[in-house]
Amino acid sequence: MRATFPHMGNLYIPLRAMLQYLDVDVVVPPPSSKRTLNLGVKHGPEFACMPLKLNLGNFIEAREMGADTIIMAGGCGPCRFGYYAQIEHAILKDIGCDMQLIVLEPPEKNISELIIKIKKITGRRSWWQVIQAIRFGYQKALAVDELERKVFQVRPREARAGASERAFSEALKLIDNAASPGEMAEARKKAGAIMAGVACKPSGPLVRIAVIGEIYTLLEPFANNRLERHLGLLGAEVDRSLYLSEWVNDHLLFGLVKGLRSSKETCASASPYLCHFVGGHGQETVGSAVNYARAGYDGIIQVYPFTCMPEIVAQSILPGVGSDYDIPILTLIMDEHTGEAGLQTRLEAFIDLLARRKETREVICK
Amino acid sequence: MKVGIPRALLYYYYYPMWRTFFEELGAEVVLSSPSTRVTLAQGLKHAVDEVCLPVKLFFGHVLDLAGKVDYIFLPRMVSVEHHKYICPKFLGLPDMIRRLEGLPDLIGVDVNLYRKDRDLYTVINNVGSLFTGNKLKIFRAYRSSIKTLQKYYRLLHLGLMPAEALAVLDNKVGDKPLNYPFELNVAVIGHPYNIYDSYISMNLTGRLKEMGAAVFTAEHVPEKTLRSNAARLPKKLFWSLGQRMIGAAFHYLDRPDISGLVHVAAFGCGPDSMTGELIERHARALRAPFLNLTLDEHTGEAGIVTRLEAFLDMVRWKKAEAAGI
Questions:
Q1: The total number of structural domains that make up chain B
Q2: In the structure, what pLDDT confidence band is assigned to residue B179 with cuts at 50, 70 and 90?
Q3: Is the ipTM of this complex over 0.95?
Q4: B169 lies in some domain
Q5: Region B131-139: what's the mean pLDDT?
Q6: Nearest to A78 among B50, B85, B269 (CB)
Q7: Which residues of A touch B87 (CB under 8 A)?
């Protein structure tokens, strides 16, 4: 069995670590690119959301590299993601890429359904080893998120253009290369040192922007046209409503790790604007907009793939949050046609607007 | 007291029930006027660009009721059966509508049967207690509303369209003969609020009939058949309406007397993008004539007519070929 999985930002780092710890033969598909998207668009349904198309492209490319088994997560709706695996499998079969599919679904009748599937992947490894593997993966996810938070800080302040980007990819590689849990502490320390070594120019308070929205477009730089990078280079400090480790903690570890932001709390902030969950991260989007507005951020950007249902609900409700808290909210919708230059222009205009508002406010305060 | 019900979305499934319930409790039920260009324009103006056509239309219908009624009935239809949702937009609909200005009070309750233990009757009771303190009266209104709904569904299963079935329930049927022989049978599969709203569907079912094709829809198929057909999928669908559409499509594609299938989707509809794909793949595998129509606010009537004509031509040729003519 040569297993592969779809890309979602840096998800491949913890996932590969976890599977390799269990001695599973892993094929990481090439990073999502124009070619990946084109493959997905060619074979996928026209009105499916973009993540499905990119997933499909990832699988086709992984197959070219010799993968024969797909590991995917499932779901029980109402977001379309819950049915991705089945549709993708049908499409792959029709184009002659018959790959085995292992979908980790939330168990419907009893837990044994899930256990059987996990055993299919892990073979004869003991449950203790599976738990250790998950811990190892989770440690990597935490380390990656730490680096991302750091690069959000450094990017707008870097003294030499491109220095932060180089440091970031170098640090990521260090984390990715740590082969055992024992090496993690060392790798984390080294990676931290690399990030701290980026020279920063002195700067006053920067514009602070929160990026919120749908998980895939948030986490996958190719899907959001490297939105965070653009914002950073334009001189804005960025935070994101969702990090990989938070999501893993909420959904896979049932909130076992304390002290992280949890989706439960975020959803609670969404009331009275959106009082019911709407699938996907719709309610979290509204809730985190409220939280960021309260935390004094200067602006909010919502990103989601074209036709994403939960986020459309959130988008219709966000103007209420914006006017109540007096905070500008920009919605960016990603699809296969988005040109990066158009995005850049809109971001420049948005940041100009925010900077101006900030300036006037400071003058008034004085 | 006047209760307004928008003539959109789940109206086509539950209206007889809702009306009976409110009328039994002594309220007057006001329906929004049938969709027109104005209804849609109102919806377009007030809804976000990204929402799908039927939701935009729903906004228009709600605004149509503003000023005419004391309450608008707007339940949050989360789930109407075990382990199924309707669609994310239905889940957030009341929150989206509440942002509109100048609306009367909304009767908003959560209808959520996702887990079996949730009791529908508590919801009914909550709505009923707005009108009367008499629990017995609420219970009787509920019983007779369920009866009316069952009668409505039986009429649909006989092959009537919702508008015809409602006319029968109201005793408003004329002496016109209902059925005349058609040369062709065509299945039309889509969300009920897309195919039965004659404005946004550009009178699709009526046009097909005029062109000589009898129309069969998912609502004509009993629930049991829909379910057993939808069970052929590798994984159960979690959208109630999607499951109905898939079940009906599989059922009709198997029937030799149905010669073609028209799939009607709304632009940007999430579930349609998935179920439509599954239906299309199935139809292609069976080499059955298949037409996919996507509706949006710009659809030109002439374009629809041309495509329907071409589709029926294809169906006729195929039929003739099979008959060896």
A1: 2
A2: low
A3: no
A4: no
A5: 92
A6: B85
A7: 78, 309
